[in-house]
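Researcher: Here's the sequence for the chain we discussed earlier.
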Amino acid sequence: MLIVRLFGIEFSASFCFDVLLRIILALLFLELEQAEPFTRKIHEDELWLYKNPQTDSYVPTTVLWPLVFLIPVVVILFSFIINKDRIDFSQALLCVTLALGFNGLITDIIKLIVGRPRPDFFWRCFPDGQMNSEFKCTGNPITIRDGKKSFPSGHSSFAFASFGFVALYLAGKLHTFSLTGKAQSWKLCFFILPICIALVIALSRTCDYHHHWQDIVAGGIIGSCLTYICYRHYYPPLDSQMCHKPYAAFTMQLQLENIKNNKSEQIKWI
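Model: Thanks. This is the structure I predict for it:
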């Protein structure tokens, strides 16, 4: 195993790559947030889709980001306090950060390429309600740019990526879907509750006219798929009897057994 020494502390090359990858994903996400999306032509017969009232978000980003990033960390930390499993702690953090990083990047790329106007785009474009024949926006450029990022819903994708991970992580720890966890409804409730929270966040985006229903469906699918893929990259399937342990724990156990076997063989030949 290749070892890298930083500030007197040894790290595996694999761990350093994992950290670097997440930093790159975060930087790309922040850069894409400032990019200008594709300007899609709006036809007169579809203008009604974008003339909904402009309202404040029911779940603003100041509430979304703490929920999305802190809740998984709290759940992982709580599991660590109970089980004292350092491998699971690190693998869970790597898993959720990878899911959120990929989700942010993919969601933003699709937003920029599609450039679908939000349901309240008309009022973002013409705050005074006076539309010109060229459909040239007169509103705040930043508000207009954000108004062209309706598809898919970032709130929905991040909510399902984050709370979807929490649901999978809790189901794994509680053996909700393995043989030992069957017929225990409280365990199923712990799995469904985070999904319900994600669903409420997603649905709120249609209530405040910030997204069309297709946007939140697509966002939910993207977030759910990415978090499941990342979870399965680090953890066994939920119906496995070992679903509570990450793959890294099995790898380390095999390495320790190989070391013991090698030592035994050496002793035999002495």
